[in-house]
Structure formats: C-alpha cells, structure tokens
Amino acid sequence: MRVRIDLHSHSNVSDGTTSPSEVVERAVALGLDVLALTDHDTDAGWVEAAAAARRTGLSLVPGMEISTKHRDRGVHVLGYLLDPGFPPLASELGRILEGRDRRLDAMLERLAAAGVHLSAEEVRQQAGVHGVIGRPHFADAMVARHIVHDRAEAFDRWLRPGRPGFVARYAPATSDMIRLVAAAGGVAVIAHPWGRNTRQVPDLETFAQFAALGLVGMEVDHEDHSPENRERLRSIAVQLGLVVTGSSDYHGAGKVGHELGCNLTAPAEFDRLLDAAARNAAASGRQVRAVVGAAAGGART
To answer: Measured in whole angstroms, how far is the alpha carbon of residue 205 from the centre of its chain?
Structure first.
C-alpha cells in the first residue's frame, strides 16, 4: 500500500482559512496518511492538530514555515520536528512575530495614502484570535470590503513588493535559521525555492552553502514550480544529497489550486527526513516534538 505524504499545510493560526483540526480531517477525507502542519513562524496549531490526528489515525508531523532572507530575497524555511522552546530559536520567532505586528500600522498607512482605507480591527478579525498577521489577512479584509475579488488580485494590485501597500519586515538570515533549526533538534527544508518569480534563486552554489550549514532538503514538487524547474531542482538535490519533498502548501480557500495531496513526498524521502531528524535530535540533546501516529517509526511499513 502506498503511503501518501504531504509535508506543507497551513491553518487559520497563520494565513490558512480552516482550523488545525479541520485541516487534519480534510487530509484524512482526501486519503492522506501523513501530513505536516507548517503555519508561519508559530507552533500555535500543533496541540489541536495532534488531538485531531490521534482521533482520526492520521500521522502528523509538527512543523512551521519560518520567514528568512538571503541577499535581500525572502526565503521560507520549513522546520520539522524541532523544539520551539529552544531559547535562541524562540527569540528569533518572537522577533519575526513582533515584526509582523509592527508592520500592521505601517501597511495601513501606506494603503490609506493609496486610497484603500482599512482598520486594524478589520485585519485582526481576518487573522482570528491566535492568528499570525500577514499580508493575506489584509487581502481578506479587502475581499470582505469588496475592494478586490480575491487574494490574488489584492496581492497583484496592492500587497506584493513594489506595490503601494507593501512594507518589509524583520526576517533573520536563511543561513542562521538553518543552523538554529538543527540546534533545536529539527530538520530544515527550503520551501518552494524557485516559486513566486524568484528566478532560480537560490542557485546551486547557494544550496551547497546551505547544505554545508545543515540544510536537509528542498521542496521540489510544488505547484509554483514548472515541470522544467522541478527537474532542475531535483538534479541539484541529488547532486548535494538533499531530501526531495513534495507538498500542497494548502491554505484552504485562501490559495486556489493547492489542494491537500496535489503533490506528495515519496516514502523513501520521508524516511530520510526522519533519520536526519533523529540524528539532529540526538545531537541537540533536546526534547523535540515527535511525529504523532504510526509514521513515527518511519514510512517503511
């Protein structure tokens, strides 16, 4: 029996539109066996998702998608099976989240100057009680006010870099975060490295540098990657000995065309990821988060 593994999903504790338990339940309904919950810069959904995984029989991989920068370009690092309480990591995550909060007023001011008037309450309402505020919540507030049709239009007109409402925020260096994830007993994977018009950055040399610092894998099979770029990334991963992952980057209704299970990670690659996580956990000496469910022993069965 083939094990179906999706290693990238979001709930409404960050910029997804469904709760952690609903994400798990949908994954089960769609026939997934293993799912990683990877909300932006937070572990706030892990407890709820783990309870749903135990109830439904899904294997849950606790993770997060961490905002970083390399040469002034945004790079997202997927950290799996790490200890979020590791003080240096917790400090950086706190700075990232503080940067998100500080950006709120600055973005509201820039949008108002461009003729789009939103309140902080409208944006916070879209993020929810525990939500990590991000640009998608500004987009959702615009949709609710009928300023735009959907998130894509909001980003294209107002929220992408270079658009009137964009404001940069704090993000640590990618190289520093890769080291921190390993020190916290987890494993680091670069998310959609050539997605979102990044023009094939990072390149081979950069991936090699990241691998030397402890990068374990790269997300190759992603809807933002063309077939040609998938093959080129796969070749780089093989050359550098990196784990190849595939995933949906599911956001619920907030991201069209990224249904759970649309891209999958091969069981053998997942086993390699788990083996690397076990080595990093042992080296760190920390109490890390384990896979919830049957896949804790690997996908070999």
So the answer is: 23
Residue 1: its pLDDT value, please?
65
> What angle, rounded to 10 degrees, do the helices at 227-240 and 204-213 form?
40
Q: Any idea which residue has 């959904």 for tokens?
A: 45
Tens-place pLDDT, residues 10-52: 999 999 999 999 999 999 999 999 999 999 999 999 999 999 9
pTM of the model: 0.90
Q: How many helices and strands in the chain, by DSSP H and E?
A: 10, 7
Rounded to an integer, what is the distance from CA 152 to the centroid of its chain? 18
User: What's the CA gap between 42 and 94, in Å, rounded?
Assistant: 9
pLDDT of residue 301: 30
Contact (Cβ atoms closer than 8 angstroms) between residue 63 and residue 76:
no
Q: What is the mean pLDDT of residues 167-192?
A: 97
* Local structure of 243: helix, strand or coil: strand
Half-sphere exposure of 234 (CA within 13 A, CB side): 14
> What's the residue count for the chain?
301
User: What angle, 0 to 180 degrees and rounded to 10, lies between the N-to-C axes of helices 46-56 and 20-29?
Assistant: 30
Residue range 104-135, pLDDT digits in tens: 999 999 999 999 999 999 998 888 766 688 89
The answer to whether 169 touches 102, Cβ cutoff 8 Å, is yes
Query: Are the CB atoms for 59 and 291 separated by under 8 Å?
Result: yes
Site of tokens 């619920």: 252
Residue with tokens 């080129």: 232
Strands (E), 49-117: 59-70, 73-80
Contact status, residue 157 vs residue 148, Cβ threshold 8 Å = yes
